[in-house]
Amino acid sequence: MTTAEYLQTPEMVTPQELIYGRLRVADAPSVPHQRLVGWLFKALDGHVREHRLGEVLLAPVDVILDASRALIVQPDLLFVSTARADIVRDRVWGAPDLAVEVLSPRPRIGDVDERLAWFAEHGVAECWLVHQRDQRVEVLALDDGRVTARTVFSRLAPIVSRVLPSFGRTLASIEDY
Predict the structure, then answer these.
(1) Structural domain boundaries of the chain?
(2) How far apart are CA 147 and CA 138, in angstroms?
(3) Which of 81, 100, 150, 176 is disulfide-compatible with 128, CB 3.0–4.6 A?
């Protein structure tokens, strides 16, 4: 399937991605997964709006990382800075500044390392991997097509982000939102 063909398909709320021309569709996420995504969205969106930093978007939304190679993903959450707001149109046409993936015990679409490679290759600056089971957040800095730094934050540790340097919330405070 080409990017043009994918963009002609009807809108769906079921997670789906186009990976180098192959359509991947997943079951709906679990309630605990969606609950955590919702809490993260409220915390990130509130912070971004308060400081007028850009926009936080919630899945499902298509992120077209590479239109010519038919690579379209749907991270759980993403942030696009005000400086790069022009990539947000009917879909997100390019790499967001930050992608957030809430990891379920059973992944629904693809492999985490595969996704990280795509994010790094296409210019996402940072990715947060939120581990439900272990109640921790990994913040990965992405540069030059690879992961250049990985920092793990426990449930009670303030999350430090180079993309959102003034954020500083803990996973525990987000869950109590």
Answers:
(1) 29-60+73-175
(2) 12
(3) 100
Tell me which H or E stretch contains 100: strand 98-103
User: What is the DSSP-derived secondary structure letter of residue 47?
Assistant: H
**In terms of Cα–Cα distance, which of 136, 167, 140, 175 is closest to 45?**
167
Element (H, E) at 37: helix 31-50
What are the residues whose beta carbons fall under 8 Å from the beta carbon of 151, sequence distance 6 or more? 138, 139, 160
Secondary structure class of 4 (helix, strand, coil): helix
* pLDDT tens digit sequence for 80-138: 999 999 999 999 999 999 999 999 766 666 788 999 999 999 999 999 999 998 999 99
47 in Cβ contact with 164 (< 8 Å): yes
The continuous run of DSSP H or E covering 163 comes out as none
pLDDT of 111 reads 83
